[in-house]
Amino acid sequence: MSARPDSAWYRIGRFASRYKLQVTAATIALFAIIGGGAAAVWQAHAAAQQRDRATALASRDGAINEFMYTLFIEAAASNKAVTVAEILERSEKLALADSGENSENRAAILAAVARLYIGSGEDSKGTKLVDRALSLLSHSGDNPLRSMLNCDRALLMADRGQIEAAIPLINGELELIFHLLEQVALALRNIWLHNQIAGNNEMMTDVLRELSSACIVVGSDLKVLHANRSAHRHFAQKNKRTNELEFSDLPHALGAKIYQVLKTGAAIGPFRYESENSPGTVYKINVVPFHSGNSAVPASALLTAEDLTQTEQLQKLEVEAEHLRLIKSMSGRLAHEIGNAMVALSAYQQLFAEKSGDKEFLKMLDGALSTGVTRVDRLINTMRFLERDSLLETQTFPVGKLIEDAYKDARKYQPAEAARLQYEKTGEPINLTGDRAALKHALSEIMLNALQANPKSPTVDVHLHTGPGKSGGQDLQIEVQDNGDGFSAEAAKKVPSAFYTTRIVGLGLGLTVSRKIIETHHGKLEIVPPQSGHAGVVRVSLPLDPAVSTAA
Predict the structure, then answer these.
(1) How far is CA 50 from the centre of its chain?
(2) DSSP code of 48?
(3) pLDDT exceeding 70 applies to what percent of the chain?
(4) In the structure, what pLDDT confidence band is assigned to residue 257 with cuts at 50, 70 and 90?
(5) Could you report the per-residue pLDDT of 9-20, keeping only the tens digit for each?
(6) Phi first, then psi: what are they for 125, rounded to 5°?
(7) Which is it for strands 420-423 and 459-468: parallel, antiparallel or unpaired?
(8) pLDDT for res 29
């Protein structure tokens, strides 16, 4: 007869076969603990933010596994049958005697033994171990383990009928869960806000990248934080190995402006900048500081550069085209006016050889020559004053005499026999200072417009008013009123414009030249808003010289 040699594995096998139920339960508990440890380790790898927690759980599960292994080895080495009660008693002594582990691991081991006591019907002993485990966690930050033990304690108290005493424990844990849920909600909100900010930042980056204007963000350390495609196209050095735009790549003038904004915190621009490396290229530059919080010093600065080269070229072409249109219109009207003046002269010139001795013919020829010369003279004066941008001479003169002379000039171009001038003379003569010839021409054109409003029986009413001006001094207002049908709403807006006329003849420059002359004298010409059934009124405002506003 032969016998197997004694060994640890042989003893464990004998023990397991003798106590199958107890060993099975203990094994299930052991695998549950090991499974929990495995789950904790998996969570540690799945969530980086819980790495420390997973490490602590792994250490705790290792301590529990080692404790259970030691317990079963001692039981297997015994030469006599071991009951469950004995195993539990031995495990309690080992757990209470072991002071080498930290308080969390010892509390977890006591909790495991307490569950075994409770499972075997020893609720009182299990309760003592749960209380002991809770006392070990009095200064611990392991809230999950403390919550688990409090729930176990509350269940034990409820089983004993101590429901009122168990409720505060459960309420405390529910409050903790509520606070945890608040923190989870806050964390979710912060995640959502972070995603929103990240999305907005990505969107703004895309917008800046696709803008036709160059956009460059420079930090306080003069490092380029962002540069869109246009910035690379306009300012990046072509001979660089890298595609990154650096602060040193920017023109010196622009770099100096960015540095000034970063130091002072004050925005600059917009201003015009012409590239030295690319003659003819023009930019509109803006530099804006970006502040972080309440800091007085900017954290960064944004430079935007809009390429105006093509825009200015188009504007220049448009101005040239407008000038050509004006020249074309002016040439046509001048040719028409001069042609009208030359028609009669040409006819008389053809008849002159035959009727040079006819007195009646010579009288008619003289009238035609006078009319033609007058019309051409008016054209010459109109062109002369239209070309002039400043006062040719300055003198002081009475307004009354100026109005009378202007009316006489207007009558030359509209010689109606029934024409009348109604002029309200003030008690003291009013003097003006300026270019008398220019002002006489301006008023003459205004009065001619009034005479032409009623060609058969024209009346020109002139009213003078003085009062405070916008510049703080005294202004003189001259109102010229006709006795015609008045201005239409359309004519009131377009009359001062060049080449606008409602008559068949004429250049349409009379009131245009008048307005320019008056504005050169720092005055204003305006058409009084028309009213149905009222005559037309043109108002001229001119500043008075305070030193010679009235004659002695």
Answers:
(1) 42
(2) G
(3) 72
(4) very high
(5) 444 444 444 444
(6) -70, -40
(7) parallel
(8) 39
Q: Tell me, yes or no, if the pTM score tops 0.70.
A: no
CA distance 405 to 462: 13
Q: How confident is the model at residue 116 (pLDDT cuts 50, 70, 90)?
A: confident
Residue in the structure block whose two tokens are 């600065």: 301
Which distant-in-sequence residues (6+ apart) come within 8 Å of 471 by Cβ?
Answer: 522, 543
C-alpha distances in angstroms, 185 versus 179, 194, 489? 10, 14, 68
Looking at domain 211-307, which CATH architecture does it have?
2-Layer Sandwich (3.30)
Q: Report how far residue 186's alpha carbon sits from residue 246's, in angstroms, rounded to the nearest whole number.
A: 40
Q: Give the Cα separation of 165 and 150 in Å (integer).
A: 12
DSSP letter (8 states) at residue 433:
E
Tokens of residue 36, six digits: 């929990």
Amino acid in the structure at residue 108: A
Q: What per-residue string of b and e applies to 285-300 under the rule 16 or more CB within 10 Å gives b?
A: bbbbbbeeeeeeebeb
Fold of 389-548: Heat Shock Protein 90 (3.30.565)
Provide φ and ψ at 139, rounded to 5°: -115, 15
Give the model's pLDDT for residue 258.
93
Question: Tokens at residue 152, please?
Answer: 């176990």
List the domain boundaries for the chain.
8-161, 211-307, 313-380, 389-548
Which residue is associated with the tokens 């009660």? 85
389-548 and 211-307 share a CATH fold: no
